[in-house]
Design a protein that fits this description.
By secondary structure, this protein is α+β, with helices and mostly antiparallel strands. It is 26% helix and 31% strand. The strands form three sheets. Strands 6, 7, 8, 9, 10 and 11 form a six-stranded mixed sheet that branches. The protein has a three-stranded antiparallel sheet with strand order 1-4-5. The mean pLDDT is 89.
């Protein structure tokens, strides 16, 4: 990751509650691009994100817009709720710090591409987001987006472990 321009700190394994904690994780402070607030990811998820950035995101941005991505915008990674906030549901995939919720990207020219705004639109932004989503399905185990359900209407959920799903 360091060779790919990432800045991160290894974190000690932690368990905060039953089914809620992480091991083999890093606090990501920047990737190959800016990220805003730091986030915690398992090492396998961090490697998958680095591969996605290098082999999907960067080439798609250059091919579609002639501009590199300067920053990703996210809703975070590690959290410990039950799925959909229901007390009778199992823990969310976010509990072991495996997913990242991606809200959008900012190109070097300042153009902001948001999943909530551009996914269902026409034009280059929508095509770009669909390419990012399809490419993520080759790298991550579980990729959920606006076509999955209302809870994912404004972001992509990239998860390294779990059921193989691309929706």
């Amino acid at each position: 990751l360091a060779r790919a321009g990432w800045k991160y700190v290894a974190l000690p394994d932690r368990e905060f509650a039953p089914g809620c904690g992480f091991g083999n994780a890093v606090q990501v402070r920047s990737t190959s691009v800016g990220i805003g607030a730091a986030f915690t990811l398992s090492c396998p998820a961090a490697v998958a994100l680095a591969l996605w950035e290098r082999h999907v995101m960067h080439p798609a941005a250059r091919a579609t817009f002639g501009e590199p991505v300067a920053r990703i915008e996210h809703f975070g990674s590690y959290a410990c709720p039950n799925r959909y906030g229901r007390s009778d549901a199992p823990r969310s995939g976010h509990a072991p710090a495996d997913p990242l919720d991606l809200a959008g990207l900012v190109l070097a020219d300042g153009r902001r591409i948001r999943i909530a705004q551009h996914w269902a639109a026409q034009g280059d932004e929508a095509l770009f987001l669909r390419e990012l989503h399809a490419g993520a399905c080759r790298v991550f185990d579980s990729v959920l987006g606006p076509d999955y359900n209302a809870a994912h209407r404004d972001h992509f959920h990239f998860e390294r472990r779990g059921a193989r799903v691309c929706r």
